[in-house]
Amino acid sequence: MANYKSELCNPFTGYRPPITNSSAGEVVAVRGTYAVPAAGLALNDIVEMVPLPPDAVVVDCVLDCDDLDSDATPLMTLAVGVVKEDGTDIESSGTLISANVAPKAGGIARLDTPGAYAVGSSESKRNVGVKVTAAPATPKAGNIGLTLMYRNAQQGE
User: Which among 43, 50, 85, 105 is placed 20 to 30 Å from 5, CA to CA?
Assistant: First the structure.
């Protein structure tokens, strides 16, 4: 298991502070990308894609990726969620997209986990990332993109 970071999550390669909104209910979108090397990603690898600022709640997310498994019977699946502080996994209560087949041939996936809207705000910045839940049969280079939509938390969230 390895942990990688997009430029938006890595403070040493062009980090920019997250976009914040100034009024409750105003939705903000942030997009991160990651270039997967030719060696591909392995099972349980995490790619931290975009920051989720303090006091923000998730509204929606969209995963888009190239074909990352060139095998005749591709196996690769990805999940999206709030990454644990130590970067080793996705929080069990923070899953936004469950094991999705988009990387098998390239495609798009949207938020699909019923509990995702209950991902509460936090007093600290968190990162939202992609986890490899099934390794590729034949890895190949490509790109992963993640667009996260969030808003400021309202009282009680």
Answer: 105
Length of the chain: 157
Q: Take residue 40 and report the two structure tokens written for it.
A: 């591909």
C-alpha distance from residue 144 to each of 66, 117, 125 (Å): 7, 23, 22
| pTM listed for this prediction | 0.86
Cα separation, 50 vs 126, whole angstroms: 9
Contact 61, 111 (CB under 8 A): yes
The whole-angstrom separation of Cα 124 and Cα 4 is 20
The CA distance from 59 to 77, in Å, is: 23
Integer angstrom CA distances of residue 108 from 67, 103, 145, 154: 11, 9, 9, 30
Q: What does the pLDDT look like over 43-86, one tens digit per residue?
A: 999 999 999 888 888 889 999 999 999 999 999 999 999 999 99
| Mean pLDDT of the region 4-30 | 70
DSSP 70: -
Write the pLDDT tens digit of every residue in 27-40.
889 999 999 999 99
